[in-house]
Write a structure and sequence with these properties.
Layout (H helix, E strand, L loop, with lengths): L18 H10 L11 E6 L5 H11 L3 E5 L4 E3 L7 E3 L1 H14 L3 E4 L2 E2 L4 E2 L3 E4 L3 E5 L12 E6 L2 H12 L6 H22 L1 H4 L2 E4 L9
Parallel strand pairs: 1-9, 1-10, 2-9, 10-11
Antiparallel strand pairs: 3-4, 5-8, 6-7
C-alpha cells in the first residue's frame, strides 16, 4: 500500500502501514469540511456489525479526533418486545446540531441504563475532527464529510447481538427483539436507502479492519 505522507487541515499524517486509517485520510484529503470547522465521519452498519470497534480504531489512530457512540443515547421505552430505543431528540440537541454548526464542544450525556437514569454530562471536545458511530447513521441530519458502511451479514450480527444482550438476563426476549423488530427494520431501511451505495467506503465487518485495504 502506498504511503500517505501528505497533510491537510484537520487530517493527521499517517504512515505506510496505517491501513483503514490511511484510506480515511486519503478520502478526506482536500475536502473542505462541510460544517466549515472540522471533518465529520460517520460509521454506519447493522446492529452488531462492528461499528463500535471500527470507531475505536479510528479514534485511537487519528490524532485529535473525538469519538461519539450512538449507544450512549439508547434509553428504555415501553414496548412488549424491545426494551429501548434511541433518544433522537436528545442526540440531535447534544451532538448533531452542534456538528451541523461546527461547534467543537459536545455535551454528551449518556443514559445510565443499569440505573435507569441520565448519567452525568461527559463533555467531548472536537479538536481536529470527529467520528460518530450510529445505527442508521448515513441518514442522520449532518452534512457528513465521509460515510463509512460496515457490511456484516445479518446472521453474524444476530449471533453477536444475542451474545451481548443474552448476557443481561433477557433470554428469549432478546431473540424476539432482534428477529421480529430490529433486524426487519434494518433490512427494510437497507433495501430502501441502499447505504452501501451512499457510503464513501465499505468495509467487511467479519474481518479485522486495519489490514483490509
Amino acid at each position: 500500500m502506498p504511503s500517505h505522507s501528505r497533510k491537510c487541515d484537520g487530517i493527521p499524517d499517517l504512515g505506510p502501514d496505517d491501513g483503514v486509517v490511511g484510506r480515511v485520510e486519503e478520502l478526506l484529503h482536500g475536502v473542505r469540511p462541510r460544517n466549515g470547522a472540522y471533518p465529520t465521519v460517520v460509521v454506519d452498519g447493522r446492529g452488531g456489525s462492528g461499528k463500535t470497534t471500527l470507531a475505536g480504531v479510528l479514534g485511537q489512530r487519528l490524532d485529535g479526533y473525538a469519538v461519539v457512540h450512538g449507544d450512549d443515547y439508547f434509553e428504555p421505552h415501553d414496548h412488549p418486545v424491545t426494551w429501548g430505543d434511541f433518544a433522537e431528540e436528545r442526540f440531535d440537541a447534544d451532538v448533531l446540531a452542534r456538528l451541523r454548526a461546527g461547534d467543537p464542544d459536545l455535551p454528551v450525556q449518556p443514559f445510565d441504563f443499569p440505573n435507569r437514569r441520565l448519567g452525568d454530562v461527559r463533555p467531548v471536545r472536537v479538536d481536529r475532527g470527529v467520528v460518530v458511530e450510529r445505527w442508521f447513521g448515513c441518514d442522520l441530519d449532518v452534512p457528513w464529510d465521509l460515510r463509512i458502511w460496515v457490511e456484516t451479514p445479518p446472521e453474524v450480527c444476530l449471533e453477536r447481538g444475542l451474545g451481548r444482550d443474552g448476557g443481561i438476563a433477557l433470554g428469549e426476549r432478546a431473540r424476539l427483539a432482534w428477529t421480529t423488530v430490529w433486524q426487519p427494520r434494518e433490512e427494510a431501511w437497507i433495501a430502501e436507502r441502499r447505504p452501501q451505495e451512499l457510503a464513501d467506503l465499505v468495509l467487511d465487518g467479519t474481518r479485522p479492519f486495519e489490514p483490509q485495504l
